[in-house]
Input
Amino acid sequence: MKNGLLALSPLAVFITLYVVTSLIAGDFYKVPITVAFVISSIYAVITTRGKLRKRINLFSRGAGTPEMMLMIWIFILAGAFANSAKVIGCIDATTNLTLSLLPSEMLLAGLFLAACFISLSIGTSVGTIVALTPIAAGVAAQTGASAAMLTAVVVGGSFFGDNLSFISDTTIIATQTQGCQPSDKFKVNAFIVVPAAVIILIVYILMGQHIAAPTNISEIEFWKVVPYLIVLVTAISGLNVMVVLTLGIILTGLIGLCEGAFDVFGWFQSMGDGILAMSELIIITLLAGGLLEIIKHNGGIDFIIDKLTRHIHGKRGGELSIAALVSLVNCCTANNTVAIITVGGIARKIGNKYQLDPRKCASLLDTFSCFTQGLIPYGAQMLMAAGLAALNPIAILPYLYYPIAIGVAAFIAIVMRYPRRYS
Output
């Protein structure tokens, strides 16, 4: 008991430092998230047994996992692309096009539908956020709407596809660990989350009635919209997100050079500035990876699993334990894919013991992992969106209606034994 709580204590230190202290101060900029992670990481290393060198190596191994390094590469490329596009006027052009095509009352709903469609097509929330967040931030600047709210619309919609897409890594792993087909899991998921998505869409339509569209929209320079269109089309076609971003960087460079927006050295400078703007996100990613590896090494994950599976009674208890397991592990790993991998085998054993439908189990694993991932401020999606929109992740949290909605919908599905056919 004590060892398990001690293993999880670095996470408690981080939450206390960053969330509780900021709430007391009434300002989430008072405690930089990087400082909270540094102090929590030092505490984690100190409280871990073994030689200091081995503890540091353990932390470094977690920070340098392939998943973490891939995310850092995406941050680097996204920063280079976003700033190059900004310098040559791509964001302004795309924003003006969006404002001219959508009536003001449909801006929120339109952004949400676009994020849902793109994420469903490409199966990744990160790729969707990279493509749409700069546009959302531009629309916010033009309309006077809250940048945090529009960014949250994109983040929420991105988890629609992350949760439902056939090619999403969470779908693939959830179905593999539970021994069912993605198509069957999709049917269960659709019953649970599509009603939530429709409700949120209606909410956005109603909220959009109060957004006043600007009347002095500048002339649209269509060729400057091309980099974003190429990024969207290639992402939807299933191209790797790193290749997509590289194509975007090349296109912005060519357009900028042809337009005279910068010379070759100016292009390099714009890319360099964009990469530096992502430095905080890169540091957070490294520190979070090391911190969570130590928690796992010290038995924090095993402690959570053991406590939640000790007193299970009946089908509802089995499903609730699966939901709680994947949610808590997701908080500790800050990665919904890793969370599903970690608890997938345990969830299958629980399902077999209480005769749960594997399709429902796979759906719950995926939905609750997306619900949690969509709300933790140190998750890759929130950090990416906050970085691209120049916001604090906590500022986005109050507007994340869709992740909350799918969590509520999935909980109701457990309590009400819904959908009946799969319960």
Q: What stands out?
A: The radius of gyration is 22 Å.
